[in-house]
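Apologies for my clumsy wording, but could you write out the amino acids of a protein and the tokens describing how it folds?
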Amino acid sequence: MRELIQQFGRLRLLALVIAFLPFAAMPLAGVVWLWQNGHLLEWLLLLVVCAGIAMLLQWWLAVNDKRRTYESRTRADGNWSSTAEGAWEHVEELAETADPAEYPLNDSGALLQLAQNTLERVAGHFHPEKEHPLLALTLPHTLLIIERASRELRKEIVHTLPFSHRLSLGNLVQARRLQQTAARYHKAYRVGRALISPATAVYKEVSRAVSGHILDYGSDRLQRWLLQEYVRKVGFYAIELYSGNLLLSGELVGAEGRPLQVLVVGPAQSGKTSVIEALAGGETEPEAGDKNISVVRISSAEWGELELWDTPAWKSLPRREARRAVAEADTIIWVSNVEQLDADYEAEQLSRLHRWMGERAGQPEPPLLVALTYCEQGDALALTHDLAETLAVAPENMVALSLADPLARKARQQLSAAFALHHAQAVRSHYWRYLNRQRRAENREIAGRQLRNVAGSAWRTARGVFRRKKR
């Protein structure tokens, strides 16, 4: 400060202060005039009213800005498993603690460390048994995470922040430095202002309380938002990768346009065909599927395209074919005739189905529903609860049906309600099943391409050596 005054010149500074004194006295003179004419109280009342209106407007703008910022933030994917959702909670915790003072945007080393911390949290959640879980990440996948996160963050900045296409990192850094410099001399300025013009000081202090630290809000909040989105983007694609949802091609592949596959199984004479008719809303014409499975294709306004797989009696269905059908199903309906129920046998078979579904490592399991048929007699609700405990099935996965007329409105409503309750889980299972299939296809394609390249290089090398020897 002393050097700045010396460079400017003491006399020149004194001349500037003397020239400014009449203007500084004007607010004081205005207050004296208001006091002499008896209008000081009205002016103070007007000041309070205007300050209150400004405070309400500022509060509304802050709430609206916070809402828009929250809406534009990166969120977890609805198809994630519970393990992936747990990893996302760790990412959110790290994002909320990201501080621009600790990770400046102009410090590439600090940003790289922040990305590494994010990856370590995600990797540690998916592989807690490993001492260094981050080292299990391959180099192409690491580069893919950085590439996708950077691209998505760029799009979000361009579409969310006004004038972001003209805003440079230097502008942000310069604004932060100016804010820090202003904060350093702000107290001295406020004291001097109060000594020179008390009325102006009162007005400015009220304005300051209403508007807040505008420079700090504009710079620090923007940088904090950028850091938080940076952490969320890196964490999002790390979770996509560790959970198997991200292909090396960079695509997030879903199963849009492919029908949900519903497997209907059960003992002989349990009412499987009637259940399919109730779901289809009429008599069906099955198409040829596998050797022992027929396919019924329907279209529903609620659920879209469906494939209903009708099977023979469970005992006559070959285990290998049954296992493959379970692996390919998005929803499984076990149909049980309460009049011919063998509780021990069916409980054992349901347990077998659960084991087969559990073989989908890292993927959401399809919902397993138990449809109890021929429930015309007795209390259906009590029967459902009793058999749920006997068969070791959750009560919400049980549905009691009266299929004397499968097309009756009551029968269709009961089955539709049970199916709709678990539809979201079926969609998640459907999504991950196709994604897993596409990931295996990609791995085969990459391995084949690498083998062809290695074989080609070896052939060219051997041919070159042979030609040199021949010469």
Q: What stands out?
A: Residues 423-470 form the longest helix (48 residues). The first strand starts at residue 260 and ends at 265.
